[in-house]
Amino acid sequence: MSAAIAALASYGGSDSESDSGSDAEGKPGLSAQVAGADAVLHLAGPPPSAQQALLPVVDSAPAVSVKEDVETGLHLDPTTKEVQYNPKYDTMFAPEFGPVNPFRTQQMAAPRNMLSGYTEPAHINDFMFEQQRRTFATYGYALDPSIDNYEVPTKYIGSVEEAEKNQGLTVFETGQKKIEKRKKFKQNDASNIDGFLGPWAKYVDEKEVAKPSEEEQRELDEITAKRQKKGKHEDDKPGEEKTVLHGQCISRFTNRKVPYCVKFNPDEDKQTLFVAGMSDKKIVQWDIRSGEIVQEYDRHLGAVNTIVFVDENRRFVSTSDDKSLRVWEWDIPVDFKYIAEPSMHSMPAVTLSPNGKWLACQSMDNQILIFGAQNRFRLNKKKIFKGHMVAGYACQVDFSPDMSYVTSGDADGKLNIWDWKTTKLYSRLKAHDKVCIGAVWHPHETSKVITCGWDGLIKLWD
């Protein structure tokens, strides 16, 4: 490299000698040095200062975020209704933090404060709101609430034609609707005797049809066919009663009151007389030959329930709803024996014993009381039969023919049998599904009892 530079320098010095002969003669060394320095100037490298500028710049300080790059705003809660400062737009409408459902539609992703959407309180007069609501419900139109009514006062929603017809009047301005009445034929001239109709005039559109139409006739035929349709014929059970009434009604007796009990006089010479306990607190005696009332016994204070003849049919005993027992002489309307105690209850069923000495009375306090039936008619306190429930039901009491047992039904449909001597409950049978209202011993076959109940059955027990 240095050899090439020296050769170039010598070559340049020979050329300059011919041009400047006089100068070279005076100072030969200086001219050669100047010419050599200028000739190789472009071949020299850059100065040291320039070499330093071309080196890469290295900053040893770490990268630190400046204050402007850090977000200093506060994040608002989406449910916040009020803030105490003036936030920026970006802060108020920034997206919410948290995961986002990518499958939500734009409508579902919109903010909501209720199930159907977003509601905000609006200032509206209650009267105006109710007025427009009723107008829309009645006529089908209302003012459009989405626009300013001051600018466009005739903008309606719903039935616009109806609004134009009513000139936009509301329910409080149109008045009450008139009910269209059916028109009648008018012929009010009273002087026209044949043609006068008056208030009996028929309607204009009224039809007079004497015969039902085909559809109505078909329905009537179906109804009559169902009524005439008979049920299944079941085989008659053995011992079933097929007739209800026997013979012809000969005569009728009434005093226009409800009779509760009827008894014929058992004497042979008084077979034409009978007594009936009525609902008007009287015992009425009739003669079937004349059909007239021959005697009245009116000392009871309540409806008469039972009548039983005692003492060889010279007397009869009656019980009533007034919780009393009265003994009467035949054909004498004044009772000669009156039995009533504060502890007594109504006795709607009374039976005379086979020997004629005792009266068994079904008391409504679930007891069977025994009264003497000969002289004093006193209560036999040693003969009280308990253990059954008959409150509210007039269950019949009966004695066995040999006076060994006392029987009675009860409200549960059971047949109760007591021992006469010990008054203990001897047996209890489930006789009926409903109330067992009657029980009678067979007068000849003393081991058999027949019962009847409210289930519609009559049963014979052995």
TrEMBL record:
It comes from Crotalus adamanteus (Eastern diamondback rattlesnake). One of its GO terms (biological process) is mRNA splicing, via spliceosome. It comes from the Eukaryota. PANTHER family: PRE-MRNA-PROCESSING FACTOR 17 (PTHR43979:SF1). The keyword DNA damage does not apply. WD repeats lie at residues 297-329, 397-428, 429-462. CDD domains: WD40. Residues 209-225, 232-242 have a biased composition (Basic and acidic residues). Keywords: WD repeat. InterPro entries: PRPF17 (IPR032847), WD40/YVTN_repeat-like_dom_sf (IPR015943), WD40_repeat_dom_sf (IPR036322), WD40_rpt (IPR001680). This is Pre-mRNA-processing factor 17-like. One of its GO terms (cellular component) is catalytic step 2 spliceosome. Transmembrane segments: none annotated. GO terms for molecular function: mRNA binding. Residues 1-31, 209-242 are annotated as: Disordered.
